[in-house]
Amino acid sequence: MYRPKPFQEASAGRIKMEPHNLSSVAGTPAPEIDIDQTLVYRLLKEQHPDLADLSIHPVSCGWDNAIFRLGEQLSIRLPRRQLGAMLIEHEQTWLPQLAKGLQRIPGDHLPIPVPTPVRLGKPSPDYPWRWSILPWLSGVTADQQELVVNQAERFAAFLRSLHIPAPAHAPHNQFRGVPLSHRQVDVEVRMKRLKATTNLITSEIQQIWHQALAAPIDILSTWLHGDLHPHNILVAEGLITGVIDWGDLTAGDRATDLAAIWMLFSDADLRQRTINAYAPISEATWQRAKGWAVFFGVVLLETGLVDNPQQAAIGEKTLRHLLEDV
């Protein structure tokens, strides 16, 4: 039988759904259940016995999921806490719906691989949540490797293909794709704390933020990834090999995803090439995109400073890229 650990407040310190208690900053949340190769083998043996003889190797353990490589072609993602379990279910439900929507548009497809689940796992006496078997995508996270020049246009093409009108019944996320005013209190409390401890919250960053708050949402709602930071983008030899972790897939303001331009591209010319390739789109949308980049930069920097230097580095670089483009 599984042995859950003491429950941790689901939203504490999370990248995707930030803490409601803004008086303190939490680091990486503790797992609510221990996940190891033995557990993975038992789950496979019970539910997908034809895969149980494949090799199982731990790959990474993030905020919400433990990742294992299964043989040469597959991977397994298992939630390590209740909030991650909710996101896995969301991804299992809605990522196939996005794929169906793309199929209905002649010639449209996502030009970068997306690991849509190929098998689904169910709760069992050993493990309380749903889990996924997905294609294995090679590469390292995008914060570890610079992208080559032609990836600017390729990433813009990916975003344009993704940002299609969502159906009326598409999910909505209270943390992503919403008006930036919904994130204002959180961001400004964090900015105040960071201003006291770093030199990154400059008057220019504050101006970008306030301009973004004032920019109206002047475009229709579309599908968006919702959490397109560098740890969810894989790269090999400078080429983007996959976009992962679709648990925040939602309908809303595409400016949320466009913020990735300032997180991904260190070179100002590549950022401009990506913007040009994605255009045309309104100036208000680009202002909101920069505001979302401020949001991600501030959240990643502050939570990362607690116990995740790689995450803090992403946040710092994002804010510096915004300053370079002023």
Give the overall average pLDDT. Answer: 90
Query: If classified by CATH, what would the architecture of the largest domain be?
Result: Alpha-Beta Complex
Element order, helices and strands?
HEEEHEEEHHHEEEEHHHHH
Quickly give the structural class: alpha+beta
Broad shape: globular
Strand order of the largest sheet: 1-2-3-5-4
CATH topology of the largest domain: Aminoglycoside 3'-phosphotransferase, Chain: A, domain 2
Helix count from the secondary structure assignment: 10
Return residue spans where pLDDT drops below 50 for at least 5 consecutive residues: 1-23
Give the total of domains: 2
Characterize the main sheet: 5 strands, antiparallel
Q: What is the compact description of this entry?
A:
This protein is an alpha+beta fold. It is built from ten helices and ten strands.
Question: Would you kindly provide a written description of the structure presented here, covering whatever features stand out?
Answer:
41% of the residues are buried. The strands form 3 sheets. A 5-stranded antiparallel sheet has the order 1-2-3-5-4. It is α+β, with helices and mostly antiparallel strands. It contains 10 helices and 10 strands. The model is unreliable at 1-23 (pLDDT under 50). A hairpin with a 3-residue loop joins β2 (65-70) and β3.
Q: What is the fold's blueprint, element by element?
A:
Elements: H1 37-47, E1 56-61, E2 65-70, E3 74-79, H2 82-103, E4 119-121, E5 131-135, E6 140-141, H3 151-162, H4 184-197, H5 203-214, E7 222-224, E8 233-236, E9 239-243, E10 250-252, H6 255-258, H7 260-264, H8 268-278, H9 283-307, H10 309-324
Antiparallel strand pairs: 1-2, 2-3, 3-5, 4-5, 6-8, 7-10, 8-9
Helix pairs in contact: 3-8, 4-9, 5-9, 9-10
